[in-house]
Design a protein that fits this description.
The protein has 139 residues and is mainly alpha-helical. It folds into two domains: 11-97, Orthogonal Bundle (Helicase, Ruva Protein, domain 3); 101-139. It is built from five helices and no strands. The longest helix has 34 residues, at 105-138. The model is unreliable at 18-22 (pLDDT under 50). Belongs to the CcmH/CycL/Ccl2/NrfF family.
Length: 139
């Protein structure tokens, strides 16, 4: 009993200790730079992880990209310059919000078109069934 409890306590300390070691401590020149860093790491996607932003990912490439963003923020680069660099290097996949252009029109507007078409089909079927039931009622 005591052995199990001791093992559980050591396991818990090991997990928490490992998490504490993995945390990054970054010093920024201004609070605005720190906020820019946070926003950028939340809005850019990890190239390795399918649906995690750089802030939440622990993949090696995410750690490297966070340090690159940190250096670029401290060098005074604008958010757009940092985003442009990441897109040029990793493609538009790194953007959680793809740009609005002709190549992404289906992504942005396709669900609304499908919803509209589905609604029209639903209305047509309901009216057709109502008309048929009215005909059947008259006979």
């Amino acid at each position: 009993m005591i052995g199990r409890l001791l093992s559980l306590m050591l396991l818990t300390l090991g997990v928490w200790g490992g998490a504490a070691i993995a945390m990054e401590v970054l010093e920024f020149q201004t609070p605005e730079d720190q906020e820019r860093y946070r926003v950028l790491t939340e809005e850019l996607r990890c190239p390795k992880c399918q649906n995690q932003n750089l802030e939440d990912s622990n993949a090696g490439i995410a750690v490297d990209l966070r340090s690159q963003i940190y250096a670029m923020v401290n060098d005074g680069k604008s958010n757009q310059e940092i985003i442009d660099y990441m897109v040029a290097r990793y493609g538009e996949f790194v953007l959680y919000r793809p740009v609005h252009d002709s190549s992404t029109a289906v992504l942005w507007y396709g669900p609304f078109v499908l919803l509209l078409v589905g609604g029209l089909i639903f209305i047509l079927v309901v009216f057709k069934n109502k008309r048929q039931s009215d005909k059947d009622a008259k006979l």
